[in-house]
Amino acid sequence: MSLVGTRRSSRLGRLAHHLTGARSDYDDLLARVGEARVTLIGEASHGTHEFYRERIRLTQRLIEDRHVTVVAIEGDWPDAYRVNRYVLGLSDDANANDALGGFHRFPTWMWRNRDVLDFVEWLREFNHHRPPADQVRFYGLDLYSLGASIEAVVDYLEGVDPVAAHRARERYACFDHVGAEGQAYGYSLATGRSDDCEDEVVAQLLELRENSPTYLAHDGNAAQDEQFYAEQNARLVHNAETYYREMYRADVSSWNLRDRHMAGTLEAILAHFDRRWPPTRAVVWAHNSHVGDARTTDMAQRGEVNIGQLARERYGNDAFLIGMTTYAGEVTAASTWGGPTERKRVRPARPRSHEAKFHEAGVGDAWFTSAELANEEDAYLERAIGVIYRPDTELQSHYFHARLAAQFDALIHIERTSALIPLETTALWDCGEPAETFPSGL
Predict the structure, then answer these.
(1) How open is the CA angle 135-267-161, to the nearest 5 degrees?
(2) Confidence band (pLDDT; 50, 70, 90) for 247?
């Protein structure tokens, strides 16, 4: 190691806030978060146990010590709302496993896993006997649930306005030829096989909003929440229609539509509860690529924005961004979109990556503030594993350049990580990746 490398290693080692598993591990970090309205906690992969574990530990402290009352995830709105009803004691689901049953779309392991299962049960117990103002809600920010959200809008209207439900059914029938499946709808438009449904979804959203005062004539928290749930589903159908319509035209446009939708959903959640119990504080769980400020990464060169950037622009110092990295280990992922769940080895981080830098410094499991990383401003490589991991093309598929100290307000590094345990495993996951298939070169 060079003299410069030795000095860097020594400096990082001195500044590291080591993780021991004690409740006090994050005392100083919570002090820095302060009274932030939104704390966004990222992850370098969607299939790493330690990322979920540490994110849950942080979230529990924020709930207990900072009066956070909203957990918003990179998951679908209807699926998460089923969990929301369970943690509030309003559903017929017998347990957290049942409540998570809505998450049946690929990748199921992302939310149907042991860590989330335990957290959902903890959340239900936390909410038990607490007044509504102190209870914690659980929401999804994503827009992939076109079909489920259509059903949710119609179901809501059946209960409050059957005539309007009939009109909604007629409008949403525009999607019947593709079974309300988003990608099939986008492909059908791109190949000229059908007309778009834009007018229908806009009309439905506007009508639901216009009639909401009537639907809320019988006031109360439950009525307000159910109307809010339905309106957000109608908004989601509108945005999902636009997203899938653009999917086959421009990748950047569809990426930005998705993150702007998630940021808008978060803003709507905060506004909804601010009307009753201000100020509302939320935790967001999403991938680093959504949480880390896009302006400090390669994303900016492609014209992409993300939730982290939008949160900083909207909330300023009231947004606190936390990222996570790892050097090596295992991950739960697939080899192709929609493929079987696998337990894969994560290759040691590449040279001149932020993860390799932490490894060389010997910091182990630790967290740092952005100020403590300020002298590490080189635009090093950073690894991102989503639901697909392709180690054979890792440099092209999973690395990008980022200025870490500007990307996040704090960073948690776990030296060696393990695979997230799905609630439903496969033979591929159970046996893990055979050693002989693991690439040896860097």
Answers:
(1) 75
(2) confident
